[in-house]
Amino acid sequence: MEPIASAQAIRDAEAAWFAAHPGGDLMGLAASAVARACVPLLAGREHLGVLVVAGPGNNAGDALFAAAELSELVGRSVPVWVWPVVDATHTDGLAASLDEGAVLVDTAGALTLCTGVGLVLDGVSGLGGRPGLPDAVAAVARAVAGAGVPVVAVDIPSGLVADSCVAQESFVADVTVTFIARKLAHVAEPAASRCGRVEMVDIGVTPPATDVHVVMEDDLCAWYPWPGADSDKYSRGVVGVDTGTEVYPGAAVLGVSGALHAGAGMVRYAGPARDEVLRAFPSVVAPVDPADPGRVQAWVVGSGWPGADGVRLEGRLADGVPLVVDAGAIEGLRQAQPAGSLRLSKGSLLTPHAGELARFLGVERSAVQADPVDHARRAATQAGASVLLKGATQYCAAPDGSVLVVEAGPAWTATAGSGDVLAGIAGTLLAAGVPAQRAGALAAALQSRAAAALPGPHTPDELAEHSLPRVIAALGT
Length: 477
Description:
Layout: E1 2-3, H1 7-20, H2 26-42, E2 50-54, H3 58-74, E3 80-84, H4 91-99, E4 103-104, H5 107-113, E5 119-123, H6 135-147, E6 151-154, E7 175-179, H7 184-187, E8 197-201, E9 212-214, H8 217-223, E10 238-242, H9 250-261, E11 266-269, H10 274-280, E12 298-301, H11 310-317, E13 323-325, H12 327-336, E14 349-350, H13 354-361, H14 365-370, H15 372-383, E15 386-389, E16 394-397, E17 403-406, H16 418-431, H17 436-453, H18 460-466, H19 468-475
Parallel strand pairs: 2-3, 2-5, 3-4, 5-6, 6-7, 7-8, 9-17, 10-11, 10-12, 12-13, 13-14, 14-15
Antiparallel strand pairs: 1-9, 15-16, 16-17
């Protein structure tokens, strides 16, 4: 896992470093890293020059010192123009760039130059920046984006907020060079799309402790419940699926598909869409009496339920095994909470989208979308279970407050039925003994990778059948 640090935690880590290294030069290390990131984007465009958009703080210093190094790095003179967006900018950085031949320009000059330069260096604001851009800076940012001029941002594209996923008006970077640890805006959509490729540079500062992490490929391989020589269908996990209705049988078929293609040892289906499920998947065990399905190690419930069904949910809770609680079952749980009549089994997982989570917490959907990490945490505490908040970027929070962030997959996955398949995948992982928070994050990551491996408009069941097993197998090679 890779840590995601808050802006304040980064400032505290820097302060601790300076206390231990009086007179240390972090800015020089950062500026050199920024300069090196500029070189590939400038290839063949050096003669067009670089416009440095410089704010008043240390980000401007990084950008200005970087600009002063460019000519030496590329082996030829690179024209540099500096636009201080307010009356003052970083004094030493400005002096260094002017010593190397940089030319100061005003707002009118920046607007004239910005669409014809080879590169824009964004050093307006950093970790402490406010959302959005001043009007003149916003005009330059829009012009640069429209002209397709490459942008390198220092730490974070100016206009974004480091601790937020919201896509404010900002520069749109091709490369963002950041330090010490990634911030939420680097990995969480829609803000992440404005950061381009994020280069995380080690400048010798110890990353701060955090309870928010991005899931990496190595984690997927380590967490997946690989079968061994002594595995059988029971040890690999028996998943119970109680989803769908006679009116909505598709949810049942999709969930079973996710469970089977994620590697379940056995799937027992105990819902009203029995005929449709068996027609699609003859390997499924589907008793005539859904009240007596046999032993399972996890249940998947709620997908395709027409509404809250507390009785149906209570029946599956009676087995005492972990549940994947989706869709209608989340609403059933919400309605039962004031009376305390339903208590989730230990190790259960809720899988709401933003609207469902908003209803569960009694807040507006927009509040969840603006701060998904906090709301996922609140729901996990309230439910006493892990919560996978579905969306472009997915967040899996545990009751202890820790959060796993799954970076976004292709936008093609935003289709009806994806959540049903995801619930089935998560059910397989729970049944195999994967802890709930990891099961949620792993399920989301596997589905995203399956979509990336089979790009285009494919249905969720196509991705489950044709791509998911290959993605899982590739992790083990």
